[in-house]
UniProtKB/TrEMBL annotation:
UniProt source species: Mytilus coruscus
Organism placement in taxonomy: Eukaryota, Metazoa, Spiralia, Lophotrochozoa, Mollusca
Top-rank taxon: Eukaryota
Name of the protein this chain belongs to: Uncharacterized protein
InterPro entries the record matches: PIF1_helicase
Length: 202
């Protein structure tokens, strides 16, 4: 892109269908091009026989949601979005994105933090059974479980050590108590066992 721009997906107008099909073919040519060619943007447009408005339409035909396209030369097509100030402090790879759709951002965060690790649970269960079988010392059992854990999931060495040794990852000096503030007729209730009901005050 010659400048940073927010593009929206194309509407399904009949008047644009013919142009979109032609531009879509051109877009596949763009995708097939080699990365990082040392040519200017104008030379690039001439090479694919597109004018700037048609190039924008070709890009818009490939997206399904509003998307931010950053100003990049052809040599920088594989460069992630970054902050120059953060890069000086972080000195590592980063991929920053503008939040355009708040709902999509919330869904992404929620799905990321609630993703299941069923495969990991099954692996650790099998590792524990293997560690308990035979005459292994505590050190050998911990080493076996740690080896399976470290080789199956990408986490820091510190976190792997804490989890393998069953050390708490966090502590709190305050106790949290849930208070149901929903109206009484809308609260979810669970039946208590008889012995618990008998021990409760009237």
């Amino acid at each position: 892109m010659q400048q940073t721009i927010i593009l929206h997906p194309l509407e399904g107008h009949d008047t644009l269908k013919g142009s979109i099909n032609l531009i879509g073919t051109k877009y596949m040519t763009l995708v097939a091009m080699n990365d990082g060619e040392n040519i200017s943007f104008q030379e690039f447009l001439e090479k694919v026989a597109l004018k700037d408005p048609d190039y924008i339409l070709a890009v818009r035909s490939s997206i399904a949601a509003p998307t931010v396209f950053l100003k990049r030369s052809l040599q920088e097509v594989r460069v992630n979005s970054y902050s120059a100030a953060c890069l000086k402090a972080w000195r590592a790879n980063m991929d920053l994105q503008f939040v355009i759709d708040v709902y999509a951002c919330a869904i992404y965060i929620a799905s990321y933090i609630t993703k299941t690790q069923r495969g990991m649970s099954e692996l650790l269960t099998a590792a524990c059974k293997e560690a308990n079988s035979g005459n292994k010392t505590i050190r050998e059992q911990v080493r076996l479980i740690s080896k399976n854990f470290l080789n199956a999931f990408e986490i820091s060495a510190q976190e792997a050590s804490y989890l393998s040794l069953q050390l708490p990852l966090k502590k709190s000096s305050r106790q949290v108590i849930f208070i149901n503030t929903s109206p009484p007729d809308q609260r979810v209730v669970l039946l208590k066992p008889q012995n618990q009901l008998q021990s409760m005050n009237d």
